Amino acid sequence: DIGTAWDYSNLGYWLLSEALASRTGMSYGSLLQTRVFAPLGLQNTAITLSPKIQAKIAVGHNAGLQPSPPVSSLSVYAVMPAAGNIVSTANDLLTFLSAAMGYETSPMTHAMEVMLSTRRPILQSGKQQALGWVVIGEGDDQLIFHDGGTLGFASAAIWDPKNKVGVVVLSNYVASVSDIARHLIRSNVPLEKPTVTKHIEIALDSAVLDAYAGRYEARGEGEFVILRENNFLAIQAPAEWGLPRLRLRPESQREFFVLELPLRVTFQTDGSGRANGLLVYPPRGQKAVPANRILIDK
Question: Does the reported pTM lie above 0.85?
Answer without folding.
Answer: no
